[in-house]
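User: Structure tokens for this complex, please. No commentary.
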Amino acid sequence: MIKSKKSDKGIFVGLIALSLLFIYPLVLVLVNSFKNKLYILKNPFEIPMGEMFAGLDNYIQGAMQSDFIRAFAVSLTITVLSVVGIVLLTSMTAWYIVRVKSKFTKVMYYLFVFSMIVPFQMVMYPMVYIVGQLNLNNPIGISLVYVGFGAGLSVFMFSGFIKGIPLTIEEAANIDGCNPLQTFFYVVFPILKPTAITVAILNAMWVWNDYLLPYLVLGTKEYKTIPVAIQQAVLGAYGNVNWGAFMAMLVLAIIPIVAFYAACQKHIIKGVISGSVKG
Amino acid sequence: MQKSLKKYFAIFALPTVIAFMIAFVIPFIMGIYLSFTEFTVITNTDFVGLENYIKIFTVDDSFMNALWFTTKFTIVSIVTVNVFAFGLALMLSRGIKGTNLFRSVFFMPNLIGGIVLGYIWNLLINGVLGIFDVDITYKAAYGFWGLVVLTNWQMIGYMMIIYVAGLQNVPSDVLEAANIDGASAPQRLFKVTIPMVMPSITICTFLTLSSSFKLFDQNLALTAGAPGMETSMLAMDIYNTFYLRMGFEGVAQAKAVVFFVLVALIAYIQLRITRSKEVES
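Assistant:
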């Protein structure tokens, strides 16, 4: 790159300004989460001081009203189950598809790829019916549905990687007396680890934030997830929303994401880059 | 080895296949069938041929409104998101101090889910509009630009990361050669850099296109379609037709099929156009 020191300084200042602009919406929500609920809509840009300051009241109300801790547990359970299921099952399937060459596996592969471009609304209504008929409307059942929806992208990504693994390694394991299960878990899966991390992160981001599927399948009662709880705090209030508690809920919903990001930023960025190659 | 693995179908492939059947294959086939029927419960359907498809374009004008709104929104989003993301990527590719921190900040909003994003911007936009005594549901244009700003905030960081990776692949000796040959900075950008990062541009326009066109959560949380249904996009219009209008389930399913065909068609055309512009480095 050809660079000049002078313009670098200008760009540095510009980047700082843009960063502040990017963070501002989050700061605004954080500030308002400490504001008395009566002032939030009227004075959203003011710093809460004096009688405007609500302390932790909003957080206590927000957590109580929406049963937020339970929603958090439900979201976490579904995300972990789905992601573990997706990584384990689709990597096995991808290996099977790549290594067993037949018409049938070819059709399977193309069906998985095809499913990636189909929008959710296309299958939404019949899917909700089938899931209800099979009594899958619980955290374990919905995780199975996520495996089905996530299979397209995940099988595609794993297959791409597996095609590059030389057969000789697996054949050596076979000759040494490994059955296919042993070969997969002792030899193939360790090689797949980088792709597995990417697949896990992409799917975790999707499942954790998904709204429509859990809303339609699990409803708004016992098993509501965080996005459903947030939407319900507005819809279920019929125009009488407790904005203070609501701001606190938004902050509580963002905190785990920021923590997750801080913990595995490197993997997330790498995942985005390798995940995007599917285009 | 192929033979011994083949016997393990039930362990290696069957669980995924079952989940895939339940979540995708069977609903997809049922969906196509249902789009040709009239029903209020799925077990009791009347075959009506193409009637639902005709209704989309005649009796029911909400679909065409949503299609027009979605198209406008998608075009504006593709252009703005990609221009800003590419600009940021250029700024972050100069080895300036703090590049990693800036990158983290710009990417952060992408991890937040659509519903939460929608309400964050609801607060901010209504706060600003409140100064003029109106809110985001006052005019469809407010909702439109609100969605554009929100989408930019969410997607710029993601696309920026892909562009940064693409820019790293532009060989610096080519740029230097162009510089020595007397090419100005804009010429170097448009004649060398941009053609060389065309694969990244393909990916980014594809990703912005498909996520803008299919947007739902943000739409629901920011405007919920208000005023009237003027700011409801295609995904939301289909959802509303399914769940809020009795007797229109078949029409809704027909809309979903049209939606799917549109998504597939656009993705195909767009990939062909940008792929043909790619150059070998």
